[in-house]
Design goal:
There is one protein chain. By secondary structure, the protein is α/β, with parallel strands linked by helices. The strands form 2 sheets. Strands 1, 2, 3, 4, 5, 6, 7, 8, 9 and 10 form a 10-stranded mixed sheet that branches. The protein has a two-stranded antiparallel ribbon with strand order 11-12. It is globular and about 55 Å long. The protein starts with a strand and ends in a 10-residue tail after the last helix.
Length: about 350
């Protein structure tokens, strides 16, 4: 059932979550590769026969990613966070879709988030509600890039063709300039969409833990990177890779490709930056400053007064379907078994 797919699990200082996830997948015959950057190796590896474990103590994310990806031998590959649960039955549906649609490079489904409170309470709620029916379906690579940019949805955790990921790893190894985790995540999505189409299917695909120390909470994002001098070299290398990939896949001239990449970046950053002749204002930072000054009251008022979720959108999410309940309940059992309320150590 899963002979042609490998799940890659990166881990760093979260052995409790890693053990929880490996326990979950131990009931399925799926090839798993773990790349662990924790200073001490994972102590319970012998329990898991289907896992290839590689210890990269204190390796950066950027350094570790190409090393892990290059160990994949299967036709398809999935990147799964150690605090996530990608549903095996959904993986099978995604593989079936890719087998029938060779023009698609990646596919995934609907996401949920969960919070495991210290008092034992477990809250589950739908995520990425603005992206539940995305279909990046143009036959033109530069148009697909623009489709991705105007309503961005990460593809880092989707089922992808290994042949496309190989191109990403070659770029990362050859340049060695891109260190920012968010740039790497964006680059993977961009390479995938330049190479092929991408779709979200209507079923629960992944349950993701809401983790305060996740990468996104401390890593600068594109609106910062694109305007800060300290990122000039990284950002230029990142843009250059995208331009070269468009030239390769669409046959554009360099000027044509650069123009299309620039327009797509502008579309991605729309609403995040306001540019004046002598200054660029980062609206994300402005919102954060206002919220800090008001001790969090501004955000609470905003959430109360602005209805950000259309009920019709929520109704379309697989979370609202009865068919999703058994999937959620199965994952909940593993979350409770390894709950932080049970006083497991993180490492």
């Amino acid at each position: 059932m899963f002979k042609n797919v490998t799940i890659i699990i990166p881990s760093y200082n979260r052995h409790r979550q890693l053990e929880r996830l490996l326990d979950y997948y131990s009931n399925y015959r799926i090839s798993i590769i773990v790349g662990d950057s924790t200073s001490k190796p994972f102590p319970n590896l012998r329990r898991y026969k289907n896992v290839k474990y590689f210890h990269y103590p204190n390796y950066s994310y950027a350094k570790k990613i190409p090393l892990i990806y290059n160990k994949v031998k299967t036709k398809y590959v999935i990147f799964c966070g150690d605090d996530d649960f990608i549903i095996p039955k959904s993986i099978k549906k995604c593989i079936d879709f890719l087998e029938e649609n060779d023009d698609y490079s990646s596919v995934h489904g609907h996401y949920l988030r969960f919070i495991d409170y210290k008092n034992g309470e477990l809250k589950v709620f739908p995520a990425y509600l603005n992206s539940i029916d995305i279909d990046i379906d143009s036959n033109i690579p530069s148009v697909r890039l623009h489709q991705l940019s105007i309503n961005y949805m990460q593809l880092f955790y989707s089922v992808t063709r290994t042949r496309d990921i190989r191109e990403l790893t070659k770029y990362l190894i050859n340049t060695n300039d891109i260190k920012n985790d968010n740039l790497i995540e964006l680059l993977q999505a961009i390479i995938l969409c330049i190479n092929g189409k991408s779709k979200i299917l209507p079923f629960i695909y992944c349950m993701r833990e809401h983790t305060p120390d996740s990468t996104g909470t401390y890593t600068d994002s594109l609106e910062v990177i694109s305007v800060k001098k300290r990122y000039k070299k990284q950002y230029a290398a990142w843009v250059e890779i995208i331009v070269n990939q468009l030239i390769k896949k669409e046959g554009l001239t360099r000027d044509e490709a650069l123009k299309k990449v620039s327009l797509s970046i502008e579309a991605f950053l729309k609403g995040l930056l306001i540019k004046f002749p002598f200054i660029t204002i980062n609206l994300v930072k402005v919102k954060k400053i206002i919220n800090d000054i008001t001790l969090g009251i501004a955000l609470k008022v905003y959430n109360l007064t602005i209805n950000k979720t259309d009920p019709r959108t929520l109704k379309k999410h697989a979370y609202s379907k009865l068919s999703g309940k058994p999937v959620i309940d199965e994952v909940k059992n593993y979350i409770r078994k390894y709950s932080i309320s049970n006083q497991y150590d993180n490492v």
